[in-house]
């Protein structure tokens, strides 16, 4: 996962001094990775030891390792297409600007979500789903919509899927899980009480838990066996989980496509499902 993504996700939890370093790095990562720890300390008004402690708080052994991660993150950065504006939508924005900002935000979230998940984690998730006896998907609110959609896709591949929008039924279903089963739990915050309780129940029954959450530290990813992440530019005051939902859908679609690629009979099963449904459309 990109160090810049991690910094963005955790910035609200930083101290005032750490936040100054974080904001400097995020504002100009190309310059930051070329600076010494002493130079970065001077530029941010912090001590050199404070810079090193900031790096260690992010999980790096020292400043040099942090610099390398920032360098790699800038090299892997996805450019936003020309003409697309990425930013917060204001009430005073014109119709055209609103469209540009919305599209830019969606593109940015999907691109960053793809970058946030390494191949190793994705392969572990694919192996767990592909070999599971049963797959239960859970989520509340917007995450529930994504869970339902992903469940439909997995059913086309022949998976035995359990999904219900009612959280009481979800937790009851989790009590029937076992070591050969997988629970996929979706929650952008990673703090939805219902989803946490269901995941805890699944773990207690020996099922493997795959979490799909935001990149910020959260309880759901902490208790999961396999952690996948979505990146979204959700404001604290928001009318709906717009970009987080899109990022979750993109990640679910990626998992589905990768499963199709590794399952020899998948295309035949998908075609059979489409043919069965087509008679209802004539």
TrEMBL record:
<keyword id="KW-0805">Transcription regulation</keyword>
<dbReference type="InterPro" id="IPR035472">
    <property type="entry name" value="RpiR-like_SIS"/>
</dbReference>
<keyword id="KW-0238">DNA-binding</keyword>
<protein>
    <submittedName>
        <fullName>MurR/RpiR family transcriptional regulator</fullName>
    </submittedName>
</protein>
<dbReference type="GO" id="GO:1901135">
    <property type="term" value="P:carbohydrate derivative metabolic process"/>
</dbReference>
<dbReference type="InterPro" id="IPR046348">
    <property type="entry name" value="SIS_dom_sf"/>
</dbReference>
<dbReference type="GO" id="GO:0003677">
    <property type="term" value="F:DNA binding"/>
</dbReference>
<dbReference type="InterPro" id="IPR000281">
    <property type="entry name" value="HTH_RpiR"/>
</dbReference>
<feature type="domain" description="SIS">
    <location>
        <begin position="125"/>
        <end position="265"/>
    </location>
</feature>
<feature type="domain" description="HTH rpiR-type">
    <location>
        <begin position="1"/>
        <end position="77"/>
    </location>
</feature>
<dbReference type="Pfam" id="PF01418">
    <property type="entry name" value="HTH_6"/>
</dbReference>
<dbReference type="GO" id="GO:0097367">
    <property type="term" value="F:carbohydrate derivative binding"/>
</dbReference>
<dbReference type="InterPro" id="IPR047640">
    <property type="entry name" value="RpiR-like"/>
</dbReference>
<keyword id="KW-0804">Transcription</keyword>
<dbReference type="InterPro" id="IPR009057">
    <property type="entry name" value="Homeodomain-like_sf"/>
</dbReference>
<dbReference type="GO" id="GO:0003700">
    <property type="term" value="F:DNA-binding transcription factor activity"/>
</dbReference>
<dbReference type="InterPro" id="IPR001347">
    <property type="entry name" value="SIS_dom"/>
</dbReference>
<dbReference type="InterPro" id="IPR036388">
    <property type="entry name" value="WH-like_DNA-bd_sf"/>
</dbReference>
<dbReference type="Pfam" id="PF01380">
    <property type="entry name" value="SIS"/>
</dbReference>
């Amino acid at each position: 996962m990109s160090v810049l993504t991690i910094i963005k996700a955790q910035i609200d939890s930083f101290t005032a001094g750490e936040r100054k370093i974080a904001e400097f790095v995020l504002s100009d990562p190309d310059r930051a990775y070329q600076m010494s720890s002493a130079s970065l300390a001077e530029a941010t008004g912090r001590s050199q030891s404070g810079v090193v402690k900031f790096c260690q708080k992010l999980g790096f052994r020292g400043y040099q390792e942090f610099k390398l991660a920032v360098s790699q993150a800038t090299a892997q950065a996805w450019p936003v297409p020309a003409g697309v504006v990425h930013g917060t939508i204001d009430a005073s924005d014109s119709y055209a600007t609103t469209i540009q900002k919305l599209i830019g935000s969606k593109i940015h979230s999907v691109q960053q979500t793809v970058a946030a998940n390494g191949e190793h984690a994705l392969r572990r998730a694919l192996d767990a789903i592909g070999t599971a006896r049963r797959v239960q998907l859970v989520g509340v609110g917007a995450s529930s919509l994504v869970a339902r959609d992903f469940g439909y896709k997995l059913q086309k591949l022949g998976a035995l899927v359990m999904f219900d929008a009612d959280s009481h039924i979800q937790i009851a279903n989790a009590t029937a899980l076992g070591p050969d089963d997988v629970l996929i739990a979706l929650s952008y915050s990673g703090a939805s009480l219902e989803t946490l309780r269901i995941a805890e129940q699944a773990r207690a029954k020996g099922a493997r838990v795959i979490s799909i959450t935001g990149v910020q530290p959260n309880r759901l990813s902490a208790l999961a066996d396999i952690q996948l992440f979505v990146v979204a530019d959700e404001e604290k005051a928001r009318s709906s989980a717009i970009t987080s939902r899109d990022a979750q859908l993109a990640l679910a679609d990626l998992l589905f496509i990768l499963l199709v690629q590794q399952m020899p009979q998948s295309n035949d099963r998908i075609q059979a499902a489409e043919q069965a449904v087509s008679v209802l459309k004539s």
